[in-house]
Design a protein that fits this description.
54% helix; GMP Synthetase, Chain A, domain 3; 459 residues; Rossmann fold; 4 domains; 21 helices; 10% strand; alpha/beta; three-stranded mixed β-sheet
Length: 459
């Protein structure tokens, strides 16, 4: 038990670096080590409410920290060790900590099944139909997504949404899932990235738990799969999706998929799977026009309580043309500088802060970001993507994750893969933490903006 306690002590320090004090005190401080057998780490929580919240929001972070501190991949199982079911849920978590739609208490299950149940990526409650800006460039996809959410399995099945990265495909998937969970309490919604689907499939083959894998994916009411273009050249995975599709579609269950291209343009996609994807509705999302970009900026400003002058919004919307992530990132930088300097947002301030936008650059790659961050912080790339968690190293790693999300089209799971196979929730937490610290710490703001200028200039 001494080794287990020592491991958990190191994990606790790592987790404290990844979440706010409020989240730590309310949830993660209540988690205690119970047992470790082989590759399975068992942790205890005081009641079902804590187990549900920790499982839904923070299990990926815990698994990532435990695997990093132990030096080998670990599966994490949560069990209830006390009978105390009283906890005060009337509190406001600070903005910037990611979360999901609350779920019912999780029944006790064997470790192997629990490991399979963590295969889904949790829904983000911030992504709803209300927070999605509908315009001519995405109106068909938006209307179709609303229809399948309102009547799952009855029309547009499957729904296939395609378009370039950063245009809102993932937002619509989460919006569908959140709507169904709110309005169909008995429905089971499963949202996964293609990478998660692949990892679950490979792990099921390795552990000989394919029956549990099939049950996990084929007993849901709504299956949402993101970025299926990554299935090309993966025949076994395509075969599994084909049979999963047939089972769900035959049972009248809803299937929604996204890709950066139409099914006909996904190379090496099996003809029988392609025909299934083409049998439903294909909805393309085009790059937003300037009016849509301005509407998106105003929506983000309203949600973040930012006073956005008209001329500032028009300047940003005119100069950031293609990617919504970069559009919102530009507003974040302007707001952070204004907050740090205690100055109102103005066109002059915006032009100074965003002197780099609109410049033509070559494609920015993760390697470019890793090299620039490593040089700035006096570290090696191996340090950034490795398991060590010294404080300056953790900050640099978080900055690199933030930049990768802002400057590239990489999804959170893909970013996690770049950083040694870390869980996607680690990357989400890192992004949110750096975004918040840019408004609070001048040093972080200057480091991040300096790196953005450097990386774009090196393109």
């Amino acid at each position: 038990m001494e080794d287990l306690d020592e491991l958990w002590s190191r994990c606790s320090l790592a987790l404290k670096d990844s979440v706010s004090d409020a989240v730590w005190n309310m949830w993660l401080s209540k988690v205690q080590p119970v047992d470790m057998a082989g590759d399975n780490l068992t942790l205890g929580v005081p009641n079902s409410v804590v187990r549900t919240r920790v499982n839904d929001r923070f299990l990926g972070l815990i698994r990532d920290a435990a695997s990093g501190e132990s030096g080998r991949p670990l599966e994490v199982l949560l069990i209830i060790v006390d009978a105390d079911d009283e906890i005060d849920l009337d509190f406001d978590e600070p903005e910037g900590d990611f979360g999901v739609v609350p779920a019912p208490p999780i029944p006790a299950v064997p470790a192997s099944v629990a490991a399979r149940a963590t295969g889904s990526v949790r829904l983000d409650p911030r992504f709803t139909f209300e927070t999605f800006v509908s315009a001519s460039s995405n109106r068909l996809a938006f209307a179709a997504a609303q229809t399948v959410a309102e009547t799952p399995g009855r029309s547009y099945n499957p729904l296939f949404i395609h378009g370039a990265s950063g245009l809102g495909k993932t937002h619509l998937l989460h919006a569908i899932g959140n709507y169904v969970l709110e309005n169909y309490p008995t429905h089971r919604v499963l949202y996964v990235t293609t990478e998660t689907f692949l990892n679950d499939f490979v792990e099921a083959l390795r552990r000989n738990t394919t029956v549990a894998f099939k049950r996990h994916y084929r007993e849901c009411d709504v299956l949402l799969i993101d970025d299926i273009q990554f299935m090309q050249n993966k025949e076994g995975l395509q075969d599994e999706l084909f049979h999963t599709y047939n089972d769900l579609h035959g049972a009248g269950k809803q299937i929604v998929l996204t890709s950066d291209r139409a099914p006909k343009s996904i190379e090496t996609l099996e003809d029988r799977l392609r025909s299934r994807l083409l049998s439903g509705l294909l909805a393309e999302i085009d790059p937003p026009d300037v009016e849509t970009r301005l509407a998106i900026l105003r929506t983000k400003a309203a949600n973040d309580r930012i006073v956005l002058p008209d001329d500032v919004g028009e300047f940003i919307a005119t100069n950031v043309r293609d990617n919504i992530r970069e559009l919102e990132g530009a507003l974040t930088r302007v707001n952070a500088f204004a907050t740090l300097t205690n100055a109102p947002i103005s066109l002059e301030l915006t032009q100074m802060v965003l002197s780099d936008i609109g410049a033509e650059t070559k494609l920015i790659t993760p390697d470019m970001i890793l090299d620039a961050v490593a040089e700035t912080y006096g570290l090696s790339v191996e340090d950034l993507i490795g398991p060590r968690r010294a404080r300056p190293l953790v900050t640099a790693r978080h900055v690199a994750m933030y930049l990768m999300r802002t400057l590239t089209d990489y999804s959170y799971p893909s970013i996690g893969k770049v950083f040694g196979g870390r869980d996607h929730s680690t990357c989400i937490s890192a992004y949110d933490k750096i975004e918040g610290q840019m408004r609070e710490r001048r040093q972080i703001y200057e480091q991040v903006t300096g790196l953005i200028h450097q990386i774009k200039g090196s393109g």
